[in-house]
Amino acid sequence: MAEQGKQGGKVPFGPDYVRAISPYIAGKPISEVAREFGLDEAGIVKLASNENPLGMPESAKQAAAAAIAELGRYPDSNGFELKGALSAKLGVPQDWLTLGNGSNDILELAAHALVTPGQSVVYAEYSFAVYALATQEIGARAIVVKARDYGHDLDAMAAAITSDTRLVFIANPNNPTGTFVPAAALEAFLAKVPAQVVVVLDEAYNEYLDDDQQYDSVAWVRRYPNLLVSRTFSKAYGLAGLRIGYAVAQPELTDLLNRIRQPFNVNSVAQAAAVAALGDTAFLQRSAELNRAGKAQLVEAFSRLGLEFVPSSGNFVLVRVGDDDDAGARVNVALLKQGVIVRPVGNYGMPRWLRVTIGLPDENTAFIAALERALK
Ligand SMILES: *Cc1c(COP(=O)(O)O)cnc(C)c1O
Fold first, then answer.
1. Coiled-coil region(s) at which residues (predicted)?
2. Could you tell me if 46 and 63 lie in one domain?
3. Looking at residue 314, which CATH number applies to its domain?
């Protein structure tokens, strides 16, 4: 054994399950694409990370600027002001709320707090990449349930739960496919899940839902001690760079997350900006309207070009750009050369598809024109 060490590189560090992880692939930053393809940053259109094309709300910018003056101090570990605002908005006490460094933090906290190595976590094929990461990094076993029409098959997911399952992840709307599970189906699912299994209902795109899709998941949290609803300020609220999200769950579950989170997991600029954004209903409404119009623009173009797409309830659309398994990568490079960044989803097992974030009208137009050229 000692000799192996001397030879160097023979003794692997860390557990097998960590070495087996495929790192998360993020959307390419504008600066990187500019460097790689010799393009001017100003002309690049980024539709790759489901960010709000309006950027950060003005109200949040002002709150963030004011908060900078206090950055010499640690943030409020308990997020009193933001939890107060969320508590008033959602109608739950503050001890039902957890703040996260992005909702990504919440997803990982749930996995770490609830699952031991060897126990299992259930999630759907073609759902958010972080569910696999959160499962693998704790040495848990993933039970990946086949998708139905690119979305969650909740009957199959309920049936997949075993005696060692402790966690189920559901994204609604789902990323990267944009599919939506109606309230009635979710409610039926929750009623079936055993009490020792926690359901994380990830509502990162909740604010984009149409009126007839809206449902009251916080009411379900009141009924189900094993339900945790996760939301984010990264998408419709336009604060992706600040990293802030939150969870709503009954106190017993919330208390567990609170025990293992970093004491200062959410910085003070993010907290201040989130309070402002939460109160900025005009911005939220404008974002949702812009998204609706942009979605119509993309869907019209895809139909005209004869491209299959998945009807989306989020701020992005998944589109099939060819019939061979190189299509996604090939068309992606052709788009990058024209300064348009979208997201290939080969790592999700969808090599013929691209996920396109809905942008400003001009950005959508530029993407559509570049796509037409790329497909020629
Ligand atoms: C974007 C996204 C998130 C979280 O993003 P954060 O920036 O970490 O809040 C969570 N779930 C899904 C499904 C997402 O698409």
1. none
2. no
3. 3.90.1150.10
